[in-house]
Amino acid sequence: MRLRAARVRVRVPATSANLGPGFDALGIALGLHDELDVRALGTDDVRVEVQGEGAGTVPCDETHLVVRALRLALDHVGAPQTGLHLVCRNRVPHGRGLGSSAAAVVAGILAARGLVSEPDALDDDVALALATQLEGHPDNAAPALLGGLTVAWTDEPAAGSAAAVRAARLAVHPDLAPVAIIPPGQLSTHAARGVLPAQVPHADAAWQAGRAALLVEALGRRPDLLLAATGDRLHQGYRRQVMPASLALVDALRARGVAATVSGAGPTVLALARRRPEGAGRGTDADGAITEVFGGVMAGWRVLPLDVDVEGGSVTTMLD
Ligand SMILES: Nc1ncnc2c1ncn2[C@@H]1O[C@H](COP(=O)(O)OP(=O)(O)OP(=O)(O)O)[C@@H](O)[C@H]1O
Ligand SMILES: N[C@@H](CCO)C(=O)O
């Protein structure tokens, strides 16, 4: 395998994982994107410029997450390593539960796909497996790669072979109107996973399986069922201790009929709202409740209505 291009442009969406009961499995791509220009250099240099989210905080050397993912993908297909110049225009907030790390990992893998002579060697199946290797779980990487609503799972490995990570796209009702409510502070996924128990009661697992099945129906065809369908007993309650304000917001919104969940590992809150019907003005059916709950007192939080991204990550080869 050789490099066929020197310059590529990559675009990857934010994602929200779990959506309540779909812990480590369901995820949805959102209309908020990181964009990167990646240039292969004739030298061994690595230069990373970051604009927007993460500027001044993420490392700008070989340890940058996009660089690590890109190198993993080049190694995987036997392509030569190269010097790199990255310009990252980041809009996905970091450490907020909106899939910034998955976006970075998918961006690196897609950049490698755009650079190599046989891009099919990094098709979506391979890209998802590589992303999961770096991320640990595929629920953000799958929608970041494929767009829309996805369910990701891992097939039991046959003796002597690696487990296969797989994903399928699911239907999304056109009225679905996600609203991200983003706090000013970060919480790492690592910290949020650290407070989860090793075991849960059988009754909770059974309850959750029913809600996850209902959620697929609610998101695809019956948005009127979203409040019931976004219940959770496996993660949000355990995580209350590390994001009390987010869980208080989830509780307050749910008490007002809004299908609110913690987005990914938090601390962002995602309201799965519905677009107002034609003629009823712009906005969503959750806007009144969000305004009422906020009351202007949650300083530094941002309310961000977002479209569902249906395209997923993309890479374009740039001609010099
Ligand atoms: N665009 C990026 N470039 C470089 N590093 C990044 C980028 N995005 C995220 N990271 C790294 O990943 C960390 C955040 O990852 P983490 O998994 O904790 O949160 P998240 O991905 O934003 O949330 P979640 O996985 O819950 O959706 C950042 O602090 C940074 O180290
Ligand atoms: N399913 C993951 C998403 C965060 O990457 C979690 O909740 O820990």
UniProtKB/TrEMBL annotation:
Q: Which residues bind ATP?
A: P93, H94, G95, R96, G97, L98, G99, S100, S101, A102, A103
Domain GHMP kinase C-terminal intervals: 229-276
Q: Which InterPro entries match?
A: GHMP_kinase_C_dom, GHMP_kinase_C_sf, GHMP_kinase_N_dom, GHMP_knse_ATP-bd_CS, Homoserine_kinase, Ribosomal_Su5_D2-typ_SF, Ribsml_uS5_D2-typ_fold_subgr
Q: What is its EC number?
A: 2.7.1.39
What Gene Ontology molecular function terms does this protein carry?
homoserine kinase activity
UniProt keyword list: Amino-acid biosynthesis, ATP-binding, Cytoplasm, Kinase, Nucleotide-binding, Threonine biosynthesis, Transferase
User: What subcellular locations does the record give?
Assistant: Cytoplasm
Identify the residues that the record assigns to the GHMP kinase N-terminal domain, covering every copy: 65-148
Top-rank taxon = Bacteria
The answer on whether this UniProt entry bears the keyword Nucleotide-binding reads yes
**Pfam families under this entry?**
GHMP_kinases_C, GHMP_kinases_N
Pathway(s) of this molecule = Amino-acid biosynthesis; L-threonine biosynthesis; L-threonine from L-aspartate: step 4/5
Question: What functional role does this protein have?
Answer: Catalyzes the ATP-dependent phosphorylation of L-homoserine to L-homoserine phosphate.
Family to which the UniProt record says this protein belongs: Belongs to the GHMP kinase family. Homoserine kinase subfamily.
**Name of the protein this chain belongs to:** Homoserine kinase
Q: What is the lineage of its organism?
A: Bacteria, Bacillati, Actinomycetota, Actinomycetes, Micrococcales
